[in-house]
Amino acid sequence: MSHTPGPWEVDSAHGTDAVYVLSENHLIAHVIAHGDGTDDAANARLIAAAPDLLEACQAALEIAEALHPRGSCDGCRMCPLELEMAPALRAALYALEAGR
């Protein structure tokens, strides 16, 4: 998967309602105001956090799979790791790779 490397940061255009997500002065996203605009900065922060969130998901899945390989469950206390967290991480990473 290829994307613009982080860090990404949020920049508000002063005097306007525009909110931008930038990487080294390259535009990643322009968050367009909707409604009263109260969610715009939060949406931009979420977008800006994407590279860090991706890295964290990949690392967490790697650790989960190392600690509890798929199909190795024998009722151990690591089961929630495999049954809940790892599938959620796999689904999120798959959505990124599949472009959903």
Overview of this protein structure:
The chain has 100 residues and is of the alpha+beta class. The protein folds into two domains: 9-48, no CATH class; 50-98, no CATH class. Helix content is 47%, strand content 15%. It contains three helices and three strands. The protein has helices spanning 40-48, 50-67, 79-98; strands at 9-12, 19-23, 26-31. Strands 1-2-3 form a three-stranded antiparallel sheet, covered by helices on one side. A hairpin with a 2-residue loop joins β2 and β3 (26-31). α2 (50-67) packs across α3. The protein is elongated and about 60 Å long. The mean pLDDT is 80.
Element layout with pairings:
Blueprint: E1 9-12, E2 19-23, E3 26-31, H1 40-48, H2 50-67, H3 79-98
Antiparallel strand pairs: 1-2, 2-3
Helix pairs in contact: 2-3
Q: Give the fraction of residues assigned to helices.
A: 40-55%
Which word captures the global form? Answer: elongated
Task: Determine the number of helices (DSSP H or I, runs of at least 4 residues).
Answer: 3
Q: Quote the distance from N terminus to C terminus.
A: 13 Å
Secondary structure category: alpha+beta
Q: Sheet bearing the most strands, described?
A: 3 strands, antiparallel
**Topology, number of strands:** 3
Beta fraction: 15-25%
What's the overall average pLDDT, rounded? 80
Q: Supply Rg.
A: 18 Å
Enumerate the spans where pLDDT stays under 50 for 5 or more consecutive residues. Answer: none
Number of domains: 2
